[in-house]
Specification:
Blueprint (H helix, E strand, L loop, with lengths): L1 E7 L2 E7 L15 E6 H7 L8 E4 L8 H13 L7 E6 L1 H13 L5 E6 L2 H7 L4 E6 L2 E8 L4 E4 L9 H18 L1 H8 L2 H5 L3 H21 L14 H11 L3 H18 L5 H13 L10 H9 L4 E2 L2 E9 L2 E8 H13 L2
Parallel strand pairs: 2-9, 3-4, 3-5, 5-6, 6-9
Antiparallel strand pairs: 1-2, 7-8, 10-11, 11-12
Length: 345
């Protein structure tokens, strides 16, 4: 097992990679605990959950609504959870978002932790303390920063993931290599078959490397005032595609990275040979799909993005594998780039 700590002002969050998730009961208080999970995770693992009240939500983004938060808060109250309570989220990114958001507002804040069950969550969503729910069709518009006390990332849980969910997480893993760890990118590049068959030893190493990048970034910039913006590589277009096309998050981010890479080349930031290498890796895992968003919609979706500042947006450009830069540019420039890309197809 490897422990990586995210250290922010007033909080330390320990990410435990390779720990068997069944040991989580030994890390919890003896009482006052509530477990939040989704129906898929509950069906596979529920019989091994610690003996505390379990509240089950529907899988996917459909549960990231204020109505669901209100419903869960009422269940906590009925169960006698008070200000000394503890919420344990067992699931993927959606469950961790819900658990963290609820923990941050219930009785003005109670403790929380996660057992992260998906690759997407283990390499990205459960680390860093961002928690959010959607407002209508706008993703994560309502949110907060709340560091979990610990996160358990057990690679054995990845064996039960549906194929699409597993590869959705792989897209975020590749993203992490692009933004901050060339070696991580190269290991993925050189271990295609082991990744396909979900080799637990290799996955543990890759997850550790990805968490290490994110922990370093978040420890320096918890609330996205500067450096943390690099984590949004591929997400500007990716979120718009995710909302319009209903792709899984990782596939939408892969499409967003494809566009960001082309934009980076067009701006003169990224050499063509590096861009081709990145695109070839995404294609090798079949992460790229057709993703045209009508021009009448792309502007609307981008203008709802929470990264927008007035008429500008912080956009993450690739400069090479392992290196990116963030530039504040007019939103219209991003829209025009997308318009040009559609016109050339």
């Amino acid at each position: 097992m490897e422990k990586i700590s995210v250290k922010t002002e007033g909080a330390v969050s320990d990410i435990l990679i390779g720990m068997k998730w069944e040991g989580v009961g030994n890390m919890l208080p003896g009482s006052g605990v509530a477990i939040i999970t989704d129906s898929n995770v509950n069906r596979i693992y529920g019989e091994k959950f610690p003996d505390f009240p379990v509240f089950v939500v529907k899988p996917g983004e459909v549960s990231k609504k204020l109505e669901d938060i209100e419903f869960l808060a009422e269940r906590l109250l009925e169960s006698g959870i008070d200000r000394s309570g503890f919420i344990l989220g067992i699931g993927g990114g959606v469950v961790c978002d819900i658990a963290g958001f609820l923990a941050s507002i219930y009785m003005r804040g109670i403790r929380c932790a996660y057992v992260s069950s998906t690759l997407l969550s283990q390499v990205d969503a459960s680390t860093g303390g961002k928690n959010g729910v959607n407002l209508g069709s706008t993703k994560n518009l309502l949110g907060c920063f709340r560091q979990p006390e610990f996160v358990i990332c057990d690679p054995a849980m990845l064996q039960t993931l549906p194929e699409e969910e597993y590869f959705s997480g792989l897209a975020e893993l590749i993203k992490t290599g692009i933004i901050g760890n060339r070696k991580l990118f190269e290991i993925i590049e050189n271990n295609h078959e082991r990744i396909i068959r979900r080799d637990a030893e290799l996955l543990a190493m890759l997850i550790s490397m990805a968490v290490g990048v994110k922990a370093s970034v978040v420890s320096e910039d918890e609330k996205e005032g500067g450096l943390r913006r690099i984590l949004n590589f591929g997400h500007t277009f990716g979120h718009a595609i995710e909302l319009y096309k209903s792709f899984r998050h990782g596939y939408a981010v892969a499409s967003g990275m494809e566009l960001a890479i082309s934009f980076s080349v067009a701006k003169g930031y990224l050499p063509v040979d590096e861009s081709e290498r990145i695109l070839n890796l995404l294609k090798s895992f079949k992460l790229l799909r057709r993703h045209e968003v009508p021009l009448s919609q792309i502007g609307v979706l981008l203008r709802h993005d929470k990264k927008k500042i007035g008429d500008d947006m912080y956009f993450v450009f690739a400069q090479g594998i392992g290196k990116v830069t963030v530039e504040k540019i007019p939103l219209n420039e991003i829209i025009e780039f997308y318009r040009g890309g559609l016109a050339s197809r």
